[in-house]
Amino acid sequence: MVQTGTIDQFLQDVSNKRQDEYGGSLEKRNAVVEAVGAERVGIRLSPRGQFQGMGMTNPIPQYAHFVSTLCQKHPKLAYLHVIEARVGGDNPGSHDGPFCVLESNDFLRAIWSPLPFISAGRYDKESALQRAEESGDLVAFGKHFIANPDLPIRLMSNIPLNPYDRKTFYVPGDQKGSDVGYIDYPFASETIDEAKVSIARI
């Protein structure tokens, strides 16, 4: 998978000030597509991202052009993975509620359809199911997977999720002095019981 940060640096006009073949016009900035056009490659984008100074005033023309070109030149890409505009980069609490959709990525869904589209952005079980049923999207989880190593079982069994600790994100282990926030989140007791049964069957 090609991660969102690298690609977004080329796509967003607030960061791409280059004047060579990877900067300037929409067509020139879109030249980065040539580097990722393989059948077994997926690409992740964050059109509304504001992390580390990113954030275009109007990302629709640039991202619509980019994704349209992907469809035309690389129709066999595995998937398009898009981050929903639910949080404001470094200010996750700046919006009303964890599932407040600020801007729609439906313009990308319309372009990419019927190819696989993965949506991510502060989903819980209910909102993920709603998204999948309404749009046919696949839904990805990020932070909840960090705090819940048994996330699929918790979701299927309606087991409450461990809350994640944002302060431990992006901090190297040697700076923490331990593995806090990395491998210390507990499994649900139901998960442990199920694992014991599975091991006993082996």
UniProtKB/TrEMBL annotation:
Tell me which Gene3D superfamilies the record gives: Aldolase class I
Top-rank taxon of the source lineage equals Eukaryota
Query: Residue ranges of the NADH:flavin oxidoreductase/NADH oxidase N-terminal domain?
Result: 7-162
GO MF terms on file?
FMN binding; NADPH dehydrogenase activity
Pfam families assigned: Oxidored_FMN
Concerning InterPro entries, the annotation shows: Aldolase_TIM, OxRdtase_FMN_N, Oye-like
Q: SUPFAM superfamilies of this UniProt entry? A: FMN-linked oxidoreductases (SSF51395)
State the coiled-coil residue ranges.
Answer: none
* Record-linked PANTHER family: NADH OXIDOREDUCTASE-RELATED, NADPH DEHYDROGENASE 2-RELATED
Instruction: Specify the protein name.
Output: NADH:flavin oxidoreductase/NADH oxidase N-terminal domain-containing protein
Can you name the source organism?
Amanita thiersii Skay4041
